[in-house]
Design brief:
101 residues; Cytochrome Bc1 Complex, Chain D, domain 2; 0% strand; binds heme C
């Protein structure tokens, strides 16, 4: 199950699907519901240590690497595996990239 999910992410990343096929509207909804509380409604940051996506912080990493962090959680950021589908995680990562100013 975990391996299958990771493989699905890898295949999606290799195929360039996140950029091409991501649903930004759904990514925005996921962001508002699950992420904005810590990362700020416009990605300006919130809780201490949360990357400021509007400044592009951490976004130089690949979609796959960012998706793994979101799935597993990182320090105070909870793991979203089992909360969000991999597809939703890729959508929200595509949305994060639109927050850069
Ligand atoms: C409880 C607060 C909290 C929530 C909720 C939260 N984050 Fe985070 N997030 C953080 C913090 C703090 C960090 C920095 C962790 C570190 O590297 O020390 C972080 C880091 C990240 C990173 C960078 C990971 C890396 O590998 O550098 C991404 C991407 C991210 N968050 C996306 C999201 C997304 C997408 C959501 C919603 C699905 C979300 N976060 C929800 C607090 C949160």
């Amino acid at each position: 199950m975990r391996i299958a999910a990771t493989l699905a992410l890898l295949i999606a990343a290799l195929a360039g699907l996140p950029a091409a096929g991501a649903d930004l509207a759904r990514g925005g909804q996921v962001y508002a519901l699950h992420c904005a509380v810590c990362h700020g409604p416009s990605g300006q940051g919130g809780v201490p240590g949360a990357p400021k996506f509007n400044r592009g912080e951490r976004l130089m990493q690949s979609d796959l690497a960012l998706a793994e962090s979101v799935r597993r959680g990182r320090n105070i950021m909870p793991a979203f595996a089992g909360v969000l589908r991999d597809r939703e995680i890729l959508d929200v990562i595509a949305y994060l990239r639109t927050l850069q100013r």
